[in-house]
Write a structure and sequence with these properties.
By secondary structure, the protein is α/β, with parallel strands linked by helices. It contains seven helices and four strands.
């Protein structure tokens, strides 16, 4: 089974009770790979100290995407490649996409930008694009 990188949008839905059986399965099997940027984004929300501690505990159990300097070089090259294809992508979004590429996994997301990235390159989405309209986060 492939690793599953989960974008912030999908984690937010999951924690709100609109989860994915795919994510449940990957969590049970230990296949979820956490992007450091996604961890930071999740923890930057307005959380009570107890909620923050529970979230940190949950995230600490996940495999972390290796994000050494070579990873960041690939993030920069991915952004440049996408820009040449006419697609402007933020560094955090390129990082999340590159995490999925680095671990040869799938990306679970509800954010439209990743559908565009997948359409322009090698990124594979766990849920085929287009994502149902009611589950999309607008960029």
């Amino acid at each position: 089974m492939s690793a599953l990188v989960v974008d912030t949008s999908s984690f937010v839905s999951y924690f709100a009770g609109r989860g994915s059986g795919l994510l449940d399965e990957a969590l049970e099997e230990g296949r979820v790979v956490l992007s450091p940027v996604v961890a930071a984004e999740l923890l930057s929300g307005t959380l009570r100290p107890r909620e923050q501690a529970r979230l940190e505990h949950f995230l600490s159990d996940l495999e972390l995407c290796p994000a050494g300097i070579e990873h960041w070089f690939r993030v920069g090259r991915l952004r440049a490649e996408l820009r040449r294809a006419g697609l402007s992508v933020s560094t955090p979004d390129a990082h999340v996409a590159q995490c999925a590429l680095d671990c040869h996994g799938l990306l679970l997301t509800e954010d439209r930008i990743f559908g565009k990235i997948a359409g322009a390159g090698r990124l594979r989405l766990a849920i085929p694009y287009p994502i149902p309209e009611d589950r999309l986060r607008r960029p």
